[in-house]
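SUBJECT: protein chain
CONTENTS: sequence, structure tokens:
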Amino acid sequence: MTIFSTRHRNRTATGKTGKIPSFAATLLPAIGLATFLTASSPAIAAYCGSTPEPGLDWSECTKKNLMLPSSELEGANLSGTDFSLTDLSGSNLASANLEKANLVRAWLAGARAEKANFARVEAYRSSFANIAANGASFAGAELQRADFSGADLTGANFEKAEVGRVLFKGAVLTGVRFSLANLSRANLSGATFEGPLDFDQAFMFLTHIEGLDLSAAKGLQQAQVDLACGDKETKLPEGLTTPTAWPCASD
């Protein structure tokens, strides 16, 4: 009777062929996955918790609602990082990669961002006031109601960007490309620039261009001008005429 019980227990534990039972085979991968996650989580937390320094990797990290003014992040990988509601004013973001970052209501006023990559960021109602972003890319960015007052955007690229109701008062726009951008109700009045701006296929519904000399503008068509808001001081390329509806009524 004892011998039978021992054999029965052996068969139950190992199976007739000595293989691991199916329930154990199912359990072991789960244990392995849990072990992997436990081991990797501290590593992820470690790099996301590191202090700001040039060239660091904060990609896909959550840096929401923080005070990070004057941070040194030159050349950093910040792609996909959540900076919503975060203060990055006065920070050094030169050559940093912020592609697809969340900058909703973030504060980047006075930051340095020469040649930074802001492509496809979400930056609704964010402040870029007085930012130095020479040669930066905002291609495909969501920038509705952002503030670029006083910004130096020389050579910046806003191709295919959503720039609705963005304020560019006092900004330097020399060499800026707005091709295929949505400039609905954006305010370019008071901006300064030398040479042509590129408006090729830009949507310019009620775009404020009062007082601007656009005589050398590229890609500007009569249909765009008819939708925009200019005044008697606005200069247009040769062949385009001032709409009779100018100046626009208060919006």
About this structure: Residues 1-21, 23-28, 30-40 have pLDDT under 50 and may be disordered. The two ends are 96 Å apart (CA to CA).
